[in-house]
Amino acid sequence: METPQNPFKQALLARRRQIGYWLNLTNTSVAEIAAGAGFDWLLIDGEHTSHGLESVLAQLQAIAAYPGASAVARIPMGLGHVGEMLIKQYLDLGAQTLLVPMIDTAEQAAAVVRAARYPGADGQGGIRGMARGRAARWGLYPDYVHDANDRVCVLVQAETRTALANLEAIAAVDGVDGVFIGPADLSASMGHRGNPGHPEMLAVLEDAVRRIVRAGKAAGSLAADEAMARRYLEWGASFVAVGLDTVTLARETTRLAQAFKGQP
Questions:
Q1: Which end of the chain is more exposed for a tag (fewer CB within 10 A), N or C?
Q2: Does 122 map to a domain?
Q3: What is the pTM of this model?
Q4: SS3 sequence, 148-193?
Q5: DSSP state of 196
Q6: CB neighbourhood size of 168 (10 A)
Q7: Is residue 89 part of a domain?
Q8: At 80, which CATH number?
Q9: What is the C-alpha to C-alpha distance for residues 236 and 223, in angstroms, rounded to an integer?
Q10: Is residue 210 part of a domain?
Q11: Count of domains forming the chain
Q12: Which residues have a catalytic role annotated?
């Protein structure tokens, strides 16, 4: 059996827009509903939720039944021994695309890439450990260890003042396929905690997206409302999550309750 391609990575390389949706809830039925809705990618959030390895695996399995939707998994952290271990485990579970938070420098981005890659023919480069896990279908993809470095997609998050100062250097790292602007943490870093829509932040976000694109890499972000999502796309972002399951549920249930009971 041939190692599957990564359609999300191929789309980013071709500069095709990829519209996504954020999965905070660990329920696989929610993942299936979102996967069947027509989104190009779904983010399994292992950073700010109760996800563990088993629930991440369950989400990957649920999304796999819908070939039009690509799974992107965000690990809780990306640096140090624990981060390297999580990258290895998420990849072995079968995640083809990783989103790694809080990357401030090119050196940190390069460390993430090394953790996501097997060693090269010269024994140098990657440090990912060898295993016949779900990613290789327990050996049914005989060429997986040779193909994986080209199939895996690495996205890193820039979400601090320091990351903005190093944005071009981060984007220039070989093996970084895209840079994701984290609007919430970046807003806090810029003195606008809880207000990513502040005029100063809008200017900062636009500048960041355009700099990433000029550097030749895919830019992405998350927006909780349609107007902001369209801004990102107008600025040149090519992978944008346009909603979150928890926000959708909270807004719609509140609207429905108020429609029948009136304002609280």
A1: C
A2: yes
A3: 0.95
A4: HHHHCEEEEEECCHHHHHCHHHHHCCCCCCEEEECHHHHHHHCCCC
A5: T
A6: 15
A7: yes
A8: 3.20.20.60
A9: 14
A10: no
A11: 1
A12: 48
